[in-house]
Amino acid sequence: MITVAELLEMPHLRLRLLSGRDGLEREVSWTHTCDLPEPWQWLTGGELLLTNGMSFPKAAREQEELVSRLVDAGASALAIGEQMYCPPLTARFTRASDALALPVLSVEYPMPFVAISREVAAANLPQQSDRLMRTERIYHALQRSVTEKRQPTQLATALSQLLGCELHVCHRESAEPWFPGSPEPDAGLREALSRAEPGSRQVSAGAFVTRMSDGRELRLVDIPTQASAVLALVCDGRNVLDAVLMQHAATVIALEMSQALVDLEHRRRQGAEFLARLMDGSAEPRSAHSRLREAGIDPTSAILYAVSSDDSARLRELHVDLWRNGVPHLVVHRSGALYLLAPDEERVLRVIRSNIGPSASVGLSAAIKTVERIPEAAREAHWASRSAERIGKRTFRYGEATPFIGVASIEDAIALVDRLLGRLLEYESSHRGELLPTLESFFDNQRSWQKTADALHVHRQTVLYRIRKVEDITGLSLDRTRDIAELWLALQARSMLPSAAEPNV
């Protein structure tokens, strides 16, 4: 690789040394032209920085800091175009350059920067060939991963060896491994990931850089096509990571992720069809038991979760987080909720909360125990989810008493509805079905005749007639507080029942 001294010895380049003589043996891997503020953010290490000085600081302290920052970024030298825009170089700048052994060169006007770049490129052709070979190896690692059906963790290990650093593919928000089965990051890495906020991270070599507490450097590279993931590269500071190879590694990881997600989506669709049949009771029990075992689900210890949330996008992606965390599961979307068949474990709720947030309502059925009980468990999960929504508990397990109506099971609710509303439901089934909606609206409008009439777009007298008809059929009076309370409780219980679980009329 060519050195700064060798460039100075080329008379046709018209370079002159201004300061930093002790650094003339620094090797130059590439040239980088930059007139932006904070040019060190765009260096990978080993570059000759070429500038016309348009954003060069004027103050002595800031010029001194520029030298320090360039050295920290691994710059080999700084070359400034003469007769351009650079302010006068201060004595503090020169002393810093000499002290830190950063050669500062003057480029005679009108020597074009491209001539210097060509000389560096020509001198470093063997190194460029080495980069091409390493790039080829990176994509060959992906090819082997696909053809030999290797685990993603094996690809990450191969890339780590090729880049000469520790490599992790992490979930951006939780700092956990993105691929299931991957080794957990050590405590130092997790701590650095958790505090690596985008606004405070230093940019270097096309990556966000965070200094770890043990002195190591953490470089974060965005992964194309997968916003939830980040490539975390940990080095000890002695090895200079090649920015181009880092981006190739991120591309390879993105391709691996895309393939994994395609396979996962295929399994999700098949699982959704299977779970729908289980919930409908149309699956053959023996083959269903076999398929559940293949999915890693034991009915004796599994339950159904009914998850409701206003964030439909996150709800649709919940299966990805379950897969990442190694949770065996089946999911299906039905009636605005996500039904999840999975083990009855705290980690499942933890994944749900971390993915969807604390606002989700989660209903838990009783234990499945047998395939034949899954349709009933689906009704239990629905009941529990509605209970969670009503009382604001967010997580509700079937069998717990529902405080505001005092019933703990679907059977209790059916009995309550049947006793108080059974005759009304029977009447409604053979008539126009106007009485029950009128009763519900009457309660929703604080038993105001006129507000109910306005809500239903009917005459006040019509509301009065319908309510009197309800009283005749049920034998209850809306002038008595006890009867009012019982009817309201029955309506609340009915609203929480799955349609298939309503009383037979």
What report would you give on this structure?
Helix content is 47%, strand content 15%. With 505 residues, it is of the alpha/beta class. It folds into four domains: 4-123, HprK N-terminal domain-like (Udp-n-acetylmuramoylalanyl-d-glutamate--2,6- Diaminopimelate Ligase, Chain: A, domain 1); 126-258, Beta-Lactamase (2-Layer Sandwich), CATH 3.30.450; 281-397, Alpha-Beta Plaits (2-Layer Sandwich), CATH 3.30.70; 410-501, PucR C-terminal helix-turn-helix domain (Arc Repressor Mutant, subunit A, Orthogonal Bundle), CATH 1.10.10.2840. It has a five-stranded mixed β-sheet with strand order 1-5-4-3-2. The chain has a five-stranded antiparallel β-sheet with strand order 6-10-9-8-7, sandwiched between helices. A five-stranded mixed β-sheet has the order 12-13-11-14-15. Residues 500-505 have low confidence and may be disordered. Belongs to the CdaR family. Residues 6-122 form the Purine catabolism PurC-like domain. Residues 281-382 form the CdaR GGDEF-like domain.
